[in-house]
């Protein structure tokens, strides 16, 4: 079941993100990976900045989460993670389909360039890769990430998205 996450779900969201993000260890640049991958105060700040989390629940327990953040002319998918022991079961696809129906705006997704599994997932679900110049511009405009992360990330765009020049 997919449901809107509430304040009481913060601990579950935190645990899912940090469990699933272990897949990045040894894959993304070493200077970008740390434990925990997302600190609790960072999660709270993301929520305060407008990231709305949706969760996939099985037997009363969250096992996948995905956030959406309205950024004016676009929406961002943020922090899409499925618990390690429940990957490859369609949870991410169900969350993505649900979230994309929540907005009529173009959707952008940022992820690590080395996270080939994530890129493949979004490409399979109809998103396209922004070119290098567009990627840099979009990351600077819609995300608050350091330059090093911009260098080592990609942006995927919903079908038909065209960046304004």
Question: What's a concise summary of this model?
Answer:
The chain is an alpha+beta fold. It is built from six helices and seven strands; from the N terminus they run E-H-H-E-E-E-H-E-H-E-H-H-E. The longest helix has 11 residues, at 10-20.
Describe the 3D structure:
The structure is a single chain. This protein has 165 residues and is an alpha+beta fold. The chain has one domain: Gcn5-related N-acetyltransferase (GNAT) (Aminopeptidase, 3-Layer(aba) Sandwich). 33% of the residues lie in helices and 25% in strands. The protein is built from six helices and seven strands; from the N terminus they run E-H-H-E-E-E-H-E-H-E-H-H-E. It has helices at residues 10-20, 40-48, 91-100, 116-124, 132-142, 147-151; strands at residues 2-4, 52-58, 61-70, 75-82, 107-112, 128-129, 153-157. The chain has a seven-stranded mixed sheet with strand order 1-2-3-4-5-7-6, with helices on both faces. It starts with a strand and ends in an 8-residue tail after the last strand. The mean pLDDT is 94. It comes from Cohnella luojiensis. GO terms for molecular function: acyltransferase activity, transferring groups other than amino-acyl groups. Keywords: Transferase.
Write the layout of secondary structure elements.
Blueprint: E1 2-4, H1 10-20, H2 40-48, E2 52-58, E3 61-70, E4 75-82, H3 91-100, E5 107-112, H4 116-124, E6 128-129, H5 132-142, H6 147-151, E7 153-157
Parallel strand pairs: 4-5
Antiparallel strand pairs: 1-2, 2-3, 3-4, 5-7, 6-7
């Amino acid at each position: 079941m997919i449901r809107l996450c509430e304040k009481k779900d913060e601990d579950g969201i935190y645990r899912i993100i940090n469990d699933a993000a272990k897949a990045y260890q040894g894959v993304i640049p070493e200077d970008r990976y740390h434990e925990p991958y997302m600190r609790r105060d960072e999660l709270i700040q993301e929520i305060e900045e407008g990231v709305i989390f949706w969760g996939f629940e099985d037997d009363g327990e969250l096992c996948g989460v995905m956030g959406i953040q309205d950024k004016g002319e676009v929406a961002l998918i943020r922090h899409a993670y499925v618990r390690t022991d429940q990957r490859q079961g369609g949870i991410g696809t169900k969350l993505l389909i649900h979230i994309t129906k929540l907005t009529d705006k173009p959707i952008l997704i940022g992820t690590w360039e080395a996270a080939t599994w994530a890129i493949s997932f979004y490409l399979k679900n109809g998103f396209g890769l922004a070119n290098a110049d567009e990627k840099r511009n979009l990351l600077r405009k819609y995300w608050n990430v350091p330059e090093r992360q911009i260098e080592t990330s990609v942006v995927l765009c919903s079908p038909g998205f065209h960046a304004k020049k």
